[in-house]
Design brief:
263 residues, 0% strand, mainly alpha, 61% helix, disordered N terminus
Length: 263
């Protein structure tokens, strides 16, 4: 995905639209215990499951926090140290008591906790700087900064860039899982051929050439495209469900993500 416009088109084409513009929503077929539900439980009592779930969510969604700190005007080195220091505190359960089950969105909790950390605990975390502590999350620091330097030149506030990058990261996570599913079934070539068209009906006049390339009939390719979009829709809702507490919040969170990509 090369732009916010493309990422917004993904969600728009999947039926994730806001009420003002007549967008439609599909209900989740099921709602299992989510990562975020486990984290909320861990905030009230010791829970290895909650700790593992929190670490998994942090490993997935660290970049929006890094972008937030950099947009505040911090240097790349300080942003890396601050983000690591924050995760160290979080994974030690220092902030889990702040999690509010009535506002159970991991996205909101993470940013609120980071803001609190930046105000009150930065000096305490300085022992975690390079060479002085343990890195709780492993990442390629140069790649992190390269990603930030590739951000569009705009006047987005730290909060706005966090919201946008959160939405984009979520979509990237969905596409990664979808790719893994197709690869596990020996259909990587099919996925690679159809992926550019998952968010828009750009194949209206191009089914024949791709079908010939894949050795499929036109009808079979159309069915494969429909199944890919259905799988994307289901994985999108499942990923969002992992960041909220209840099924009633999934559609509202999807609306928020669409708005974040549009603005």
């Amino acid at each position: 995905m090369s732009s916010f416009r493309a990422e917004f088109a993904v969600m728009e084409s999947m039926g994730v639209r806001d009420q003002e513009n007549g967008f439609q929503y599909t209900q989740a077929r099921e709602f299992r215990t989510t990562h975020w539900s486990a984290v909320l439980l861990a905030g009230r009592a010791a829970s290895p499951e909650g700790d593992r779930a929190l670490e998994e969510l942090c490993r997935t969604y660290w970049y929006p926090l890094y972008a937030y700190v950099r947009r505040q005007g911090r240097s790349a080195e300080d942003a890396q140290d601050l983000t690591q220091g924050f995760f160290a505190r979080l994974l030690e359960r220092k902030h889990l008591s702040l999690a509010d089950p009535q506002r159970g969105r991991f996205r909101t909790f993470l940013l609120s906790s980071l803001k609190n950390f930046l105000i009150t605990e930065w000096e305490k975390s300085r022992t975690l700087k390079r060479g002085g502590g343990h890195a709780f999350l492993s990442w390629d620091e140069q790649n992190a900064e390269n990603r930030y330097l590739a951000e569009p030149v705009d006047d987005l506030t730290p909060e706005r860039i966090y919201e946008k990058r959160w939405a984009v990261t979520l979509l990237e996570q969905v596409m990664t899982r979808l790719r893994e599913q197709y690869a596990a079934n020996g259909k990587s070539q099919l996925f690679d051929a159809l992926k550019p068209h998952v968010w828009a009906d750009t194949l209206a006049d191009g089914y024949d050439s791709i079908a010939a390339q894949l050795g499929m009939s036109d009808g079979a390719l159309r069915v494969a495209m429909h199944r890919l979009r259905e799988s994307f829709r289901e994985l999108l809702r499942a990923e969002v469900a992992c960041t909220v507490e209840s099924p009633a919040e999934v559609d509202e969170e999807l609306r928020h993500l669409v708005a974040s990509l549009r603005n």
